[in-house]
Amino acid sequence: MSEEKTDKNIFSLEKILTVSAREYCESRDTRSHADSPPSVADYVFKGVHVQVDPRVCTHIMLVIHAFAGEVPKDAEVVVDYSASVSDCCAVADGTALISKTAYARRKENRDLKF
Questions:
Q1: Confidence at residue 70, expressed as pLDDT on a 0 to 100 scale
Q2: Are the CB atoms for 11 and 68 separated by under 8 Å?
Q3: Given this model, what pLDDT does residue 3 score?
Q4: CA gap 34, 14 in Å, rounded
């Protein structure tokens, strides 16, 4: 895993979703957008993967928290999330959606590290 993170900068668990990117975009309220809800084309996708020794993470919530600590700080949401714990490993995967506006700001600041 990357650098240490405090509870204040761990990605919100409420924004880790099992729906697809398309389903997420289609569910957005159009009242909060000028013309229409965002589409998948409005986002940069960043895959997030965590694999943890099951002797350390014996409960699925520990895996979820480890995963949340790896989500890029400017992600709007994580979609297609899945997690599992077995005898050999604990794994969590998902796709972070970063708005192209936020990504452009990061690029301007030359902060391309996720």
A1: 95
A2: yes
A3: 44
A4: 25
- Residues of the chain with pLDDT below 50 are 1-5, 114
Say which amino acid occupies 92.
Answer: A
- The predicted model scores a pTM of 0.80
Helix (H) or strand (E) holding 34: none
Specify the pLDDT at position 21.
Answer: 96
Strands across the sheet containing 77-85: 43-52, 90-99, 77-85
Which two tokens mark 49? Answer: 């993967």
Q: How far apart are CA 97 and CA 45, in angstroms?
A: 5
Which pLDDT score, from 0 to 100, does residue 38 have?
83
Q: What are phi and psi of 70, to 5 degrees?
A: -100, -5
DSSP string, 73-114: TT-SEEEEEEEEE-SS-EEEEEEEEEEHHHHHHHHHTT----
Q: % helix / strand / coil in the chain, to the nearest 5? A: 30, 25, 40
- Residue count of the chain: 114
